[in-house]
Amino acid sequence: MSNFVDYVKIHCKSGHGGAGSAHLRREKYIPKGGPDGGDGGRGGHVIMKGDSHEWTLLPLRFTRHVKAERGHNGAKNQLTGGYGEDVYIKVPLGTIAKNEEGEVIAEIMEDGQEIILMHGGKGGLGNEHFKSSTNQTPRYAQPGMPGEEGFITFELKILADVGLVGFPNAGKSTLLAAVSAAKPKIADYAFTTLTPNLGIVDYRNYKSFVMADIPGIIEGAAEGKGLGHRFLRHIERNSILLFLIPADSESHYKEFEILENELKKYNPELLDKDYIISISKADLLDDELKQDISKEFPENRKPIYFSSVTQEGLTELKDVIWKKLHG
């Protein structure tokens, strides 16, 4: 899913309420019929709805405006006007909506969950409501109330089982391509991945889990350097984290500590998640080198070795991930 879209801004407008009716009853045998104007119907709402079949905001990328139907006017015989039709904006789970001030106004976490983002205007009251002892035949009714209008920004924080964390060129995209059907762009320069990629990893007995390749972190990302906060926030929504340290790193454990520190500075709660440390590009190592690298790490943080190129260690890596997810 290299065409991942995680940010969409849409101009939304709910429907005006319908006008109340100022009708006076006129029938053959009732020469002085009173007011019988019905109320107007409410305008249509703009509603955000969770859809577990959607993974990105891609379907909304060309949606610039969304407008709900206005309410129908009231009519004689105290007939209330029909409601304006609501407009639904389908979004993936984990989508938040922000108003023009940047405040989060809604968050979708469940399939089928609905949240009204903009309420339709109330319908106006018909003239029957204004009848009194001093005014038997009011000839006025209320207009409908206006709907709401403005820009809403939709943002998706990825919901994945495993988030890949590593410096640029750590081999995250290569791993994702090796274990799933995702086809991320892979090239030999920093920040190849500018947007997160999602892949569904097949596991034993037709089971599967979702892996997210998150853009590379560099030192200072927590302060907004490089790609900064925009991508660090994707890591918040992953169940477990998989740290990737390339075999050709100059100092494997130090590289892990830098990554860990960036997450800690951004949001200390990220380190409460379960995580796995792995050494990628293990085809470059012999057994003696692997032992030397493992000695850099404390006893409770020993890394797993794998190679996306030769497939070495991928089955074991998937086993460890599954155990962490469902242990």
UniProtKB/TrEMBL annotation:
InterPro entries: G_OBG, GTP-bd, GTP-bd_Obg/CgtA, GTP1-OBG_CS, GTP1_OBG_dom, GTP1_OBG_dom_sf, OBG_GTPase, P-loop_NTPase
Residues given in the record as GTP binding sites: 166-173, 191-195, 213-216, 280-283, 307-309
Co-factor(s): Mg(2+)
GO cellular component: cytoplasm
One GO BP: ribosome biogenesis
GO MF, one example: ribosome binding
Cell location: Cytoplasm
Binding site for Mg(2+): S173, T193
Obg domain: residues covered: 2-159
Keyword S-adenosyl-L-methionine among record annotations: no
Keywords: Cytoplasm, GTP-binding, Hydrolase, Magnesium, Metal-binding, Nucleotide-binding
Limits of the OBG-type G domain: 160-326
Record-listed E.C. numbers: 3.6.5.-
Keyword Nucleotide-binding on entry: yes
SUPFAM superfamilies assigned: Obg GTP-binding protein N-terminal domain, P-loop containing nucleoside triphosphate hydrolases
Job of this protein: An essential GTPase which binds GTP, GDP and possibly (p)ppGpp with moderate affinity, with high nucleotide exchange rates and a fairly low GTP hydrolysis rate. Plays a role in control of the cell cycle, stress response, ribosome biogenesis and in those bacteria that undergo differentiation, in morphogenesis control.
Complexes and interactors: Monomer.
Protein family membership: Belongs to the TRAFAC class OBG-HflX-like GTPase superfamily. OBG GTPase family.
Protein name per the record: GTPase Obg
Organism of provenance: Marnyiella aurantia
Lineage: Bacteria, Pseudomonadati, Bacteroidota, Flavobacteriia, Flavobacteriales
